[in-house]
UniProtKB/TrEMBL annotation:
<dbReference type="InterPro" id="IPR036249">
    <property type="entry name" value="Thioredoxin-like_sf"/>
</dbReference>
<dbReference type="GO" id="GO:0045454">
    <property type="term" value="P:cell redox homeostasis"/>
</dbReference>
<keyword id="KW-0676">Redox-active center</keyword>
<dbReference type="GO" id="GO:0005829">
    <property type="term" value="C:cytosol"/>
</dbReference>
<dbReference type="InterPro" id="IPR011990">
    <property type="entry name" value="TPR-like_helical_dom_sf"/>
</dbReference>
<comment type="similarity">
    <text>Belongs to the thioredoxin family.</text>
</comment>
<dbReference type="GO" id="GO:0015035">
    <property type="term" value="F:protein-disulfide reductase activity"/>
</dbReference>
<dbReference type="Pfam" id="PF14559">
    <property type="entry name" value="TPR_19"/>
</dbReference>
<keyword id="KW-0249">Electron transport</keyword>
<keyword id="KW-1015">Disulfide bond</keyword>
<keyword id="KW-0813">Transport</keyword>
<dbReference type="InterPro" id="IPR013766">
    <property type="entry name" value="Thioredoxin_domain"/>
</dbReference>
<feature type="domain" description="Thioredoxin">
    <location>
        <begin position="10"/>
        <end position="130"/>
    </location>
</feature>
<dbReference type="InterPro" id="IPR017937">
    <property type="entry name" value="Thioredoxin_CS"/>
</dbReference>
<dbReference type="Pfam" id="PF00085">
    <property type="entry name" value="Thioredoxin"/>
</dbReference>
<dbReference type="InterPro" id="IPR005746">
    <property type="entry name" value="Thioredoxin"/>
</dbReference>
<protein>
    <recommendedName>
        <fullName>Thioredoxin</fullName>
    </recommendedName>
</protein>
Length: 306
């Protein structure tokens, strides 16, 4: 299910994405000359031969449509139902479906059969367009850099652009949520999370953003104030715990883990094992390969068995 994020109201719509306008259309034998042969003189055209009864087509078709939209107009797509256009399929020697042709300058220049993984389809489209970059991938990278650099407004704008092209993009949704949190708009982020369907909430990037949101909402104040309180009261475990939450919400995972480990070192049973439980939650959100998670798990284990 796709979502559309409104930059002003930060509401969520579960409406289906648009068909892609002129980028994606249903073709027939009669329209093939105009839609594919002539059109490919201006921009490469992907032709997807499919049928309603074809199982793999139900996977490949939507993925192709998504990636074509992400190319931002560098390629177009025409869908041909082989049951309704058997003569055309025979002329192009379509022996099994799904079969995908790539046309350029009025001629087929590449093809594949079967439901390929997304990475291989991206390679196919890149070759067809002469190496044109996937505009969504480029925007995601630029947005991530902006967010990491503290430019939340630019990051939010870029993530919105991605969602206009790919309304259900998990990385864009997660990035948008992180941008809202960093921008002090946790309430808006919470509204969006509450409306996300279950399949998106299971995505690792969105799950990590949701954890960040939860921790930011639990934070008892700004990082600077909490750090000053901890320095003044080193044995105040609640203040140190709150500082860890604030640090994680501020994208300082290493520092957050450090403070929670210190709480556990000083009193491992404090508040019903709260420090260890929070560490495990952060490790899960970061993912098993994140340096802060790897190092943190190792140090937590050392403390547990010391």
């Amino acid at each position: 299910m796709a979502i559309i994020l409104d930059g002003e109201s930060t509401t969520v719509s579960t409406a289906a994405p648009a068909a892609g306008g002129d980028l994606i259309k249903d073709g027939t034998t009669d329209t093939f000359m105009a839609d594919v042969i002539e059109a490919s003189n201006s921009v490469p055209v992907v032709v997807d031969f499919w049928a309603p009864w074809c199982g793999p087509c139900k996977t490949l078709g939507p993925m192709l449509e998504k990636l074509v939209r992400q190319m931002g107009g560098a390629v177009r797509m025409v869908k041909i139902n082989v049951d309704e256009n058997q003569e055309l399929a025979a002329q192009l020697r379509v022996q099994s479906i799904p079969t995908v042709y790539g046309f350029r300058q009025g001629r087929p220049v590449d093809a594949f059969a079967g439901a390929l993984p997304e990475s291989q389809i991206k390679q196919f489209l890149s070759g067809l367009t002469g190496g044109a970059e996937n505009s969504v991938d480029a925007l995601l990278e630029e947005a991530a850099q902006a967010l990491e650099g503290g430019d939340t407004e630019t990051a939010l704008s870029l993530y919105q652009q991605v969602l206009q092209a790919d309304q259900g993009n998990p990385k864009a949704i997660a990035g948008y949520l992180r941008g809202l949190i960093a921008n002090g708009q946790s309430g808006d982020a919470a509204q969006i999370v509450a409306q996300l369907p279950a399949d998106l909430l299971r995505d690792p990037d969105i799950a990590a953003a949701k954890t960040k949101l939860e921790l930011s909402q639990e934070s008892a104040g700004p990082v600077a104030e909490l750090r000053a309180k901890v320095e003044a009261e080193p044995d105040n475990h609640q203040a140190r715990y709150d500082l860890a939450n604030a640090l994680y919400a501020a994208d300082q995972a290493d520092a957050a883990v450090e403070e929670l480990l210190e709480v556990f070192r000083r009193d491992r049973s404090w508040n019903d094992d709260a420090a260890r439980q929070r560490l495990l939650k952060i490790f899960e959100a970061l993912g098993p390969g994140h340096p802060a998670a790897v190092n943190g798990r190792r140090r937590l284990s050392a403390l547990v068995f010391s």
